[in-house]
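Recall that a protein's primary structure is simply its ordered list of amino acids. Everything else, from secondary elements to tertiary packing, is in principle encoded there. The following example makes that idea concrete.
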Amino acid sequence: MAQIHINPIADRVGQQLYNVLRDRMNPQGVPQNPTYDLIVTLRQSGAPSLINPNQTTARVDLTLYADYNLYRRDAPGVSVFHGQSRNTTSYDILISDPYASVVSADDAKRRGAQSLADDIANRLATYLAQPAVAAPQPAPAPAPASP
């Protein structure tokens, strides 16, 4: 996994996801001559999960979606592994303390990014641990043509 270069991910939550992925996959720092590039696209949605009697939202379910592709550098444009991860976290909205609501939302995004990073790193580790991936076999020679 230390041979995977992680491309930057847009948005603040994307930065958090990038940082956690980098810590998990590249603990020794950015690889000098990586074999793979990882490209992650992140999106999010929120939905009220608890409504107060006055019809205001008291709790929100935040869902983060990550689509990712792993590319070999020696075969540009060809994804060797792709996947999708999803995580849902919740946070409270406090009418009496708007700052606490912002902090709560930020914490939910941070926790979601950490969970997505764990899932992506585990899936990539499983893929890269496969014997066919770890030691690619040369393509078989074509059979001679029959006259």
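The first helix runs from residue 12 to 25. The radius of gyration is 21 Å.
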